[in-house]
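idk why but the lab printer keeps eating my pages so im just putting this in chat instead. protein + tryptophan:
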Amino acid sequence: MSQTSDRRRILSGVQPSGKLHLGNYYGAIANHVALQDQGDAYYFIADYHALTTVQDRERLAELVRDVALDYLALGLDPAKATFFRQSDVPEVTELTWLLATVTGTGLLQRGHSYKDKVANGITPRAGLFLYPVLMASDILAYLSDVVPVGKDQVQHIEMTQDMAQSFHEAYGCEVFRRPEALMAEGAAVVPGTDGRKMSKSYSNTIQIFAEGKPLKTSVMGIVTDSLGVDEPKDPEACAVYQIYKLVASPEAAAEMATRLAAGGYGYGEAKKALLAAVNEAFAPARERRRALISDPDYVEDVLRAGATAARSVAREVVGRAREAVGLARASVTDT
Ligand code: ADP
Ligand code: TRP
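predcted complex ->
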């Protein structure tokens, strides 16, 4: 865990809300793993956020464990990045309150994510409404410089900038750093098996750690048009190829594109090639995941060590925020 101050701090949170899929991998996780070599990376499992949608104790514990295993198996290296559970640093909930007191409700009412979730039937509770404030607190409590996120989260980073500014203006201080969103360069939107964006909420995913029959069923179930084997096909309009080019080597992808365009190559064959490519690409990660499952103490130790390091940063920053608003630097029970 590098703490050197001259390196930019990179921070992102992952909601433990279901099995991770290829969209998550190519849209976010691969980028997180690559960034751990380019700065002081902090990654956390956003379990406080998950409470806005998961209200089942056992399920939450299982989802948190899954994300930890998945990230470690996919290459997150605890020697390079600080990896922890959001709720192991309760200071972020305290900072959430301090920020909420300087945040206009209009700002939150304009939140796309809030409006989308409510439109999709999630009950509009206060926690869901305050979700962006909790997220701002995550970002500001660790003095993050760069926040790698998908497009859907960019507005939350802009809100974070606004909240930091409101706090500084209200109290005439400079406690926080201004964070910037970082969108993965050229990160494509990965199509799902029905051609829409791959997403848990559409049940159209290909899960990273699915194997055998379930994996085969999802890959073979990718919806294609009805062109016959002999007819020439447009690779760019084909979800199988769109996914294949992310998973396979550039040469193999170019070969599939040529074959599809030439005709005489059916979607069934393309799907088999995709299945083989997924199996090959994720075999080492599956192996590591199995090893991690058999060593739960290791995973827990990683998260605890990460929380200890993260908490010392948050304590310091939230302490300064407390002082700025006129509270004692630490609560009397926290000395
Ligand atoms: P889901 O849509 O399955 O609920 P999340 O919203 O939890 O996924 O997304 C977690 C991360 O994965 C975000 O950074 C998001 O931008 C990225 N992501 C999710 N689906 C895709 C996709 N189909 N293509 C690219 N990135 C994706
Ligand atoms: N809201 C983010 C998502 O759903 C997860 C998250 C929580 C996050 N806190 C964060 C991301 C702080 C970046 C920074 O993907």
